[in-house]
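Working notes for the structural subgroup meeting. M.R. asked for a predicted model of this chain before we commit to crystallization trials. I am recording the input and output together here so anyone reviewing the notebook later can reproduce the run.

Input as submitted:
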Amino acid sequence: MGPVRRSRAQRHVGEGSLLHADIFGLMALQYLILVARTTLLDQDMVEDAAARLGMQVQRNGPNVASLTSGGRVPINVDNGHVIIVGDLFDRFGSGPSLDKLETSLGASVLADPMGTLLTRFWGAYLAIWKDGDVITVMRDPSGLLPCCYTVHERYVAFASDPRTLLGLTRARPSIDWGGIPRLLYADDLAQARTGLMDVSDLLAGSVARIDANGCKQAICWSPWQFASREEEATSQTHVDRLGCAVEQCTRGWSSSFSKVLLAASGGLDSSIVASCLDPKIDRECITMATADPRGDETAYARELCTSLSLRLSCYNYHLEDANVLRSAVAHLPRPGARAPMIAYDAAIKRHVEHMGTDLFLTGAGGDNVFYLTHSVRPVVDRFLAEGMSSGLFHTIRDIAKITETGLLEVVAQALRFSRRRGGIYEWRYDGSLLHADCLAEMKRNCPDHPWLAAPNDALPGKAGHIAMITRAQQYLHGYDRRLPFTSVAPLLSQPVVEAALRIPTWIACQGGIDRSAARRAFETRIPANILRRRTKGGPDAFAIQILRSNMELVRDRLLAGRLAGNGIVDVVAVEAALMPERLARDANYVRLLLLLDTEAWIDGWLSADVCAPKRIGVALN
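Returned structure, recorded in token form:
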């Protein structure tokens, strides 16, 4: 007898408009976990929270209570000694997520929760267990299930979103004005500190240990465990492992739901995901295009869908959808989006309202996981691993081809890289447009991430690869979990990341092709035109259009807004960046859109009614 799997019928969406469906039952999983610090949990408080938040109490024990939305029942091992909230998959299978564990596996989890879950399973989950006087909460390494928390005098609360945390206590949201500049200075680095006071993020692959003294966060999974130089495997072995992991995870996710919508950008990563979808389910794709031909990938998306017999819906970005007064990540405890995302999301939501879906998949993170690089780091890695060898020359030639640079220039760049001082990887912070005082404070106390702590014998290319994977964590959870679908980036699933980490950087660029291992793994399943692509369009022209068409409002927001009023941005520098001739120069517009979204994010939280009903429709504002 094996693990018991969840039937797709348990998440069936149904046909037609979701306006007539049970929206609450279709939402992405929302949860609340309450953990007592000293005394027992107040059972009345738990029941009251469930009633106010529209959740069901799944367990109401003396030390731990779990509440979930939509009737989603956690996996309880040994009557709740270990609780697993979210989606858990068998590492040695390819079926849907599990409802419960077979007896022997349950015993293994009970004996060693952390070790067994990290090596025998994967998914998007939170696990809770008690060990003596300490209660441990673990977030899986993928980070695909969001988790933020707040520490109170008598308990610690963990939740899928900050609205749930604040709704628990009915506290008014308060902005962490010290956290905001850190998020802007390292806007693509996942951090435990958020932009809301008393709300922290539990980082992916980390545990929170709760006792009478409080709550301490520590790493429990490190990408460096899988970046060892010791394993010797052929290039083809690495390719096969990566292909199997991608197929297993994509099939697992898609088979756990009844109707899947995939964002097909026309690029390699989303095409790989499309080729792995479970053919037994209802599948369709969606693509977005700008009026500028450089942002129109429709032809590639159509070729992909034709080859895989998938339905395709094509939509355009509309300027009226890009509301600069609203943040695209208003539901998160941190800012960090751009206005084009709002227009993109609007099209997705309209499509879902009309056609219905319960799983939205993307190829997000593929560039990071598959290691798209134009650096000489693979050359340095191969020299450090093998010394002078014929293989080293092959890698020099590969990088020269990828970067369209001469062989001697690649060698010179590699030598300069090898001689530079400092660590093997230095995170690139962005202090542009920040006030000098704010910037000085950031430089004194730089944000960091535990995955960036490289061992002494680490290879610089692999350090760069891990930094890219770390960066991908910051861009998860773009959709409010109150919407009637679950959004997943399957390429960030734990088995895929671990398989990719094992691949030497020089194999990832073998043959002078970026993401070479991923391309080889799926070369027989993806149209040749897509497989050979080296560049891809995006909504850059649309992003600049948003700024230019709203310039008066943008100037007012950025020059006299809350960031300026709190001494976070350099008003003179911002005004200069807003000059028409500078908007598109050096990607200034990207930074300006981030500041604009941050202003909207702050306004959204300061005016938020956290006690509002949790049941909403697709037209979420």
